[in-house]
Request: fold
Amino acid sequence: MPSVQHSLASDCKRQSRDAQSTKLKLINAALNAFTTQGYDASSTRGIEKAAGIKRGLINYHFGSKAALWKASADHLMSITEQDLGAAVKEIENLEESQRLRAFVRAYVTFCADRPELNRLMIQEGMMADWRLEWLLDRSVRPWYRQVCKVFKHAKTMGLAPQMDPHHFYYVLTGAATLIFSNAAEAEALSGRNPLDSVAVAAHAEAVADLFTPVEKSR
Reply:
């Protein structure tokens, strides 16, 4: 028979797994609510219902709606940093003439995988408050600097349009994200699912064509 200590250890591990599973369910439900409805319109009870979780567990696991928002946004930003960070690292090994194009394609592909990121920024970018400042400090400012750095280098090499990096940042963001954030509209208009892998690849090429000389990169 297992010892009392062994049983207690097993129970602790199971409880820890259950708690982590509950927290992840709440984070995913919260991200969906916050990115589609906005922070103020999202209720903790609605998030708990969407997660299939008992009432009161947001306060138990996170302490408040604001803390849940931070945990959810941090979860999304961590995924963003991991995925885009890996893509940027791979791009550094390419020839100079290919880097900007590869950067744009990688960003578009990520936006297709995570349309909730742009939806979150749309929701929070309209008003200067604590949530926007938190996002800017947590991830957005470093990413902005990274995008501008890549573009400035390409422009210096004569491999990018003569536009201000700030405008490049927003032109790229809009072109890369809108079709995926508004996927239902895009599919209704075209009859094609924009999140299909072939459609994503085609859109990535189309956006890359806006910023790089096609004849030099293909």
Observations:
- Residues 65-217 form a domain with the Tetracycline Repressor; domain 2 fold (CATH 1.10.357.10).
- The radius of gyration is 21 Å.
- The chain has a mean pLDDT of 91.
- Residues 4-36 form the longest helix (33 residues).
